[in-house]
Amino acid sequence: MVDGFEAEQAERAARDVRSKLMAKASGDEEMFALGSSVARVVQMATSDDQGTQDLAYYVLSDPALTQRILRLSNTVCYRTASGMQVTTVTRAISLLGFDNVKTAALAMMLVDALGTSAHANSVRIELEASLCASLVGRELGRRSSHAGAEEASIAALFKNLGPLLVASHEHERYREINKLVATGKHSVAQAAQKVLGCSYDTLSEAVLGEWNMPDPIVRALQAPPAGALKPAANRGEWMRQVAALSMDVARLVGREAEPADVASAQALLARYGKALALDKDAFDGLFATVREEMNGLLESMHLAPPRLEEPEPDGLPGVLQQAALDGGAVADEKHASGKPKNAREQLLAGLQDVIQLRAGGHARVNEVVSAVLETLYQAMGFRFATVALRDLKSGQYRARASFGAEHAALQAGFIFPAEARRDLFHLAMENDADLMIADAGTAKMRELLPSWHRALLPDAKSFIVLPLVVNKVQLGLFYADRTRTAPEGVPPDETSLIKALKSQVLAALGSG
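^ that's the sequence the OP posted. Answer follows.
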């Protein structure tokens, strides 16, 4: 009778813990914000230029995330052959790959949301396991003929969400689970079931369901059957195998100095090798690659001390290059208009990034346009920056990409007719004249502003217009504005750099 009462009490306590965690996941303001951000990033498409644009803007909207992505792209394993520093998110996406930046951004969100827990040591162990699992998932995806490498790495990242949440928000329960596992009488799943009333995987699935994650990712958290696995019959089964092995490898990397050499690694190879087409050499290579990339990822998040490197002949040591990304006090100084006082340095760095992007030989025109647009937006401190291109079917110029506050709504409204008018935009294109307007409020300037611009952007006080004209054909223009006048103007050295940025786009358009 006593045993039955104790079992009932334990079950009630487990239900309470599970309910509290689910309530926090769906009702807590910070967790709700995390879930919304995660869902938004996961839903960004990889198949079109708008997905890249959306990801670049999302990263830029968070200064801390921007710095981390830039640090990651400048770590040893990603640094370009030229050794030049990557300074724009667009270039980072081109260098790292859309999927890698997307998964890295998700990982960094977890670090921000959960890394400040009062139980920092336990949470860090689980965070590092999650980060490592995402890297394993990405590498396994690269080696597979199955589509969906990105989803596999995201599933691997969130495979450990349950332990992360419990370590952060129910630490006593987390310790109870670990104590049961330490006795050797319970597996992790059994211990979690005993304490929480469900396995960690089930908890992770429930939370991701609350966050409206895609079903294939949620289902991928289910554990595959015990024993040696066979090659997957479908993509869903393959994702489950990848997520499971990714987490097992991450745990091994976390506790062993030479994980590839221990008996546990051989057991994993025996279980997953045939299913995922891994032999001993491939498995050893997997450990080596993940270890190197893990060091770079932790470094980019300041979760590990940076490694010392030899100075490079033509510049700063790598560790100082990364420190320079933070900008220092000068980078924070701005004119009253909002324009950074180091605009010249930022324009120059952005121009170098665009040149490197084109030099690779694989950059699409839209990537070059986006990189230039990002550089103008950041370096000149604009509120809104966009590129409008001619649409032959509709006979209009339409904004195709943008950065800045309310950029989506402003981009949707930035449309004007293609036929010649006596307004500022058409005159700029007809004369192929780059315009830097310091004060848009003067009577003469307002006379030249078309009604659609006054309606859409009534608070634009200063702006630039950079026509895109190739062989006298008016293709469109760059536009960027501020809500304050800019009496400091644009000195000749900055003007030259802006023109050089535009020339990179014209060259890309001409060769495309």
